[in-house]
């Protein structure tokens, strides 16, 4: 008899994900984040809790040296403005020169046509992964985010899609992971998607297979969310608890709770 | 025999306020916030805890579409700069075109003469409500915030004044509500006034009577503050607990604890 | 027999530090902070927990009046940009005119050569104290932060060095304090160094001897960190608990726990 949530492949994927999370702690990758004003503090704390080292400057005279010294780059389009756009252009150039992996989070492009157009342009510049929700995927592709559309987009754009929602779906066009971890309180705290994307960036810093890295990041935050919910009494304590849960997340917890296949 | 804090009118006002708070949860209004860098994260989380949906961009090319798609606008003058001023001008124009209610929080205008002058100009552009403290009211009007001055200012400016302090006073010049809820720890956490103003914006989104909407918002945050204080061991845990308390605030709690008349 | 950690001088220094911390609560100094986007909220809350009153604007038309009305200024170079640089120039000028003490935190200058050069220039403009870590001191001086180098730098620059790490060292070139309080979780929360610097600014506002003021600030945050760690289950709850611990930190706790000599 086998447990329905734990098909044999679950164990393999979860174990590979646990390796990635352990590598983040072992190597403490530097993750440079161009991210929105709402998410900056929480993002830095999530990265620290996972064992990574955040930096956040967007100054034109400094962004180049910060990115060149980093192990991965996050570009998050929340509260986007001229300064963030200039920083992004330089940062992606430097990332390309340094073969640095970078991750795109096209926050709320369903609310702003110019932002959606800019996100589409950024996709052509080679992000290793995109982390977004259903409304954002629809705004990007003018189509429903069904499995076929996700796979086709990933193949066309040569990237990995990490679509978060009740079930997270991660695909590079060939392989598909479905993650059924997480908790409803995750949608009651601001910037939860943003910090998931930052964790994807930390994982692509230490794992060349971006599909596995993205799966590992979304699995880790989902399992941490479940751990946090066990202690939380609402969204305020949940935001605190998820940092504690991610900090103590280890291989045993990840393997025991993973619902990924 | 009746309880001194619960005159008959209290029950009526509190019940009307509870209706407003329930409507925020039912309709999840979108509240676009031009607010200061210190308050952004806490403001977003307070709005989510109340059931509203925050957005925060100030980019000139995006602010119009964000405001047009919102149900209310908050203009908070903390950490004000050229970008926020440009965003505010556009946002208020769009709000006027779309008949969108907006709320002004003239943060710390007692510390900066140019900011006070700008706030006075903004008042002429039709905010549905002003949320401020005594020092800020004095800077705005060059007069003491006694009951008569508040009523006269509200009538002249055709707006609602929500003056917070040990007792909160809400007036549209005709009606006056006095709210004696809240807790001293509320003044020990940064941006507590800012998040109260954001909650006013969420309430004017769902209630056309701005006096009632403002009363509902200040009552809700005051009652949530009392609930938070029961669990908190200091200002740090209080900031967390008030999010949890607001999240679980319901009609019964509001009616049982309201000290409004 | 005497306890090894509590040499007689410890008691004297700790008592003098406790006086400074009590004076911050008694006088509620206004501390204007030019600080980075990641640290702003936490910095404001730390200052409030200590009894000080924070402000944070960087707008060119307002910074002068905010600084002129403050009791101390913090200049923190994290997420530095053109707006913060312009604000800093004005703020330091006003501080000089008003004889206002100011504190420099050269965040991450080890990651950015232009920022290191700017920090070196700022040191010539008379900060009362510098709070930094080992890597930042090395970037500033191109030398190892041994005791002799610290003392020489403090003498040459006519300032106080507050070097934080496992043991904090505070010197004005003549006197040296070593503080062995604190907890490893302090390095797992973002902006912990930034808030320590803000606390130094609050202390120089009420204590003319910058060496004592810096020692008091670093001792207070270290002892608060130990108190927080006793309740915390990870970095998330630690960030909350340190605010509570600092809020209730009093003379008795400080004297009982101080490891300073």
What does this structure look like?
The structure is a homotrimer of 261-residue chains. An eight-stranded mixed beta sheet of chain A has the order 2-1-3-4-5-6-7-8, with helices on both faces. Mean pLDDT of chain A is 95; it is low at 1-8. Chain A starts with 7 loop residues before the first helix and ends with a helix. The first copy, chain A, is built from eleven helices and eight strands. Chain A has 261 residues and is α/β, with parallel strands linked by helices. In chain A, strand 3, helix 4 and strand 4 (102-105) form a beta-alpha-beta unit. Chain A has a single domain, classed as UDP-N-acetylmuramoyl-L-alanine:D-glutamate ligase.
From the structure above, extract its key features.
homotrimer, alpha/beta, UDP-N-acetylmuramoyl-L-alanine:D-glutamate ligase, 8 strands, 53% helix
The CATH topology of chain A: UDP-N-acetylmuramoyl-L-alanine:D-glutamate ligase
Oligomer state equals: homotrimer
- The helicity of chain A comes to 40-55%
- Reading off the top of the CATH hierarchy, the class of chain A is best stated as Alpha Beta
- Major beta-sheet overview of chain A: 8 strands, mixed
Query: How would the global form of chain A be characterised?
Result: globular
Q: Give the second-level CATH assignment, the architecture of chain A.
A: 3-Layer(aba) Sandwich
* Full CATH superfamily name of chain A: Ribokinase
Number of strands of chain A: 8
Distance between the termini of chain A: 18 Å
Number of domains of chain A: 1
The secondary structure category of chain A is alpha/beta
Taking all Cα atoms into account, the compactness measure Rg of chain A is 17 Å
The greatest inter-chain interface is formed by:
A-B, 29 and 28 residues
The helix/strand order of chain A is HEHEHEHEHEHHEEEHHHH
Total of DSSP H or I helical runs spanning 4+ residues of chain A: 11
- Share of β-strand residues of chain A: 5-15%
Give me the side-by-side strand order of the main sheet of chain A.
2-1-3-4-5-6-7-8
């Amino acid at each position: 008899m086998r447990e329905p949530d734990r098909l044999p492949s679950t164990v393999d994927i979860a174990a590979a994900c646990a390796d990635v999370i352990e590598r983040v702690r072992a190597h403490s990758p530097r993750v440079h984040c161009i991210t929105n004003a709402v998410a900056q503090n929480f993002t830095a704390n999530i990265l620290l809790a996972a064992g990574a080292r955040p930096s956040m400057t967007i100054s034109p005279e400094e962004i180049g040296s910060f990115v060149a010294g980093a192990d991965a780059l996050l570009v998050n389009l929340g509260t986007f403005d001229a300064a963030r756009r200039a920083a992004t252009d330089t940062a992606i150039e430097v990332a390309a020169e340094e073969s640095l992996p970078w991750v795109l989070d096209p926050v709320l492009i369903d609310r702003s046509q110019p932002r959606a157009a800019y996100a589409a342009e950024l996709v052509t510049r080679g992000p290793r992964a995109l982390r977004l929700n259903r409304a954002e995927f629809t705004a990007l592709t003018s189509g429903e985010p069904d499995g076929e559309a996700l796979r086709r987009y990933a193949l066309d754009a040569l990237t990995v899609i990490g679509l978060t929602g009740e079930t997270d779906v991660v695909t590079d066009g060939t392989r598909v992971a479905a993650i059924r971890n997480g908790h409803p309180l995750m949608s009651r705290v601001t910037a939860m998607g943003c910090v998931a994307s930052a964790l994807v960036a930390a994982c692509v810093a230490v794992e060349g297979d971006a599909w596995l890295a993205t799966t590992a990041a979304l699995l880790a935050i989902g399992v941490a969310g479940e751990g946090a919910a066990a202690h939380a009494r609402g969204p305020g304590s949940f935001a605190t608890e998820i940092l504690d849960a991610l900090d103590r997340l280890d291989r045993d917890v990840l393997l025991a709770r993973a619902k990924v296949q």
